[in-house]
TrEMBL record:
<keyword id="KW-0812">Transmembrane</keyword>
<feature type="domain" description="Cation efflux protein transmembrane">
    <location>
        <begin position="82"/>
        <end position="269"/>
    </location>
</feature>
<dbReference type="InterPro" id="IPR050681">
    <property type="entry name" value="CDF/SLC30A"/>
</dbReference>
<dbReference type="InterPro" id="IPR058533">
    <property type="entry name" value="Cation_efflux_TM"/>
</dbReference>
<keyword id="KW-0862">Zinc</keyword>
<feature type="region of interest" description="Disordered">
    <location>
        <begin position="1"/>
        <end position="52"/>
    </location>
</feature>
<dbReference type="InterPro" id="IPR002524">
    <property type="entry name" value="Cation_efflux"/>
</dbReference>
<feature type="domain" description="Cation efflux protein cytoplasmic">
    <location>
        <begin position="281"/>
        <end position="346"/>
    </location>
</feature>
<feature type="transmembrane region" description="Helical">
    <location>
        <begin position="78"/>
        <end position="101"/>
    </location>
</feature>
<feature type="transmembrane region" description="Helical">
    <location>
        <begin position="113"/>
        <end position="132"/>
    </location>
</feature>
<keyword id="KW-0864">Zinc transport</keyword>
<feature type="transmembrane region" description="Helical">
    <location>
        <begin position="213"/>
        <end position="235"/>
    </location>
</feature>
<feature type="transmembrane region" description="Helical">
    <location>
        <begin position="177"/>
        <end position="201"/>
    </location>
</feature>
<keyword id="KW-0406">Ion transport</keyword>
<protein>
    <submittedName>
        <fullName>Cobalt-zinc-cadmium efflux system protein</fullName>
    </submittedName>
</protein>
<dbReference type="GO" id="GO:0005886">
    <property type="term" value="C:plasma membrane"/>
</dbReference>
<dbReference type="InterPro" id="IPR036837">
    <property type="entry name" value="Cation_efflux_CTD_sf"/>
</dbReference>
Amino acid sequence: MGQGEGRAPEGPGAVPTPLARPGGHKEIDQGHTLHPPADRGHADANPHACGPGVRHPCHGHFHHEHHHGAAGQDFSRAFAFGIALNLGFVVLEVASGWWAGSLALLADAAHNLSDVAGLALAWAGAWALRLKPDARHTYGWQRASILAAFANAVLLFAAMGWLAWEAVQRLAQPQAVQGWTVVGVAAAGIVVNSATALLFLRGQHGDLNVRGAFLHMAADALVSLGVVIAGALYLWRGWSWLDPVMSLTVAVVIVLGSWGLLRESTRLLFDGVPERVDPLAVRAYLEQLPGVERVDDLHIWAMGTTQIALSAHLIAPGGPLGDAALHRIAEELQHRFGIQHATLQVMREPITSLHASSLSDFGRR
């Protein structure tokens, strides 16, 4: 038996050493969770690190992880300010809409109320990103941010569905509205909602959860703009039917614009590859690495709305790739594809089992 075979590794970061596989004598190099170069001391200190001349099955533990906890921290004040501002405005809109008899104004208030709930969900999701992992939740609570984004999309669609239904009902029975009140309150809504949306503008591209909050606020500003236009035309031409028509039009526009949020959050909830990552390009990059013959069991998924993880089997008949090569792979995965957490299992031969051969064979050359 070679050195280290059949013996449990020591140290808190080690992974169990496998016994030789029946019917085979080739060494297996597995279990590399990659660290960037700044953390090489961790890898070098590992008594099971892989490298030239190592004869036992290698189990170097390299951890490459780049945290993006700033979303919850940076936007906490934005969430609090947005919730308070919108709650106050909801009260104003309900009172004014009731007095003015404006469905568009009441609908805007209902949508604003759903946005308050959406902001609260997004805030909770952002806060969950900062919770530390434990024995039962080894990834922490990052998935909560994806769930919050999905809930935001569902709330947005539900609010627009209700708005469209009420607009159709009002079209059948048009009612007079207080034009000046409608215009004044809705104009204030444009200011309130636009200001809140701007708070999340810089974070919407890097965090799906923050994007959900931004879309809610931007949608509110658009609804308020529609109300202003409907109120102004009513004052000018007396077209009472324009109020529900404008509400229906805005609802359709918002649903079309928010479809991407619902689609992407649903994809991530089912461990789909994030939209901004090309899985075929990732496979092609790994397969062209020196010494790598093929890539098996490639998986890419979102740990939360800010972090992407990858795991794969790299079949390298020539043996271990070496620490320096693994660190370079980690850097490239993050730089090219935005993958912050990569776990690579390097083996001399593939695992010939139904489980290994049936998963993630997409794009194999």
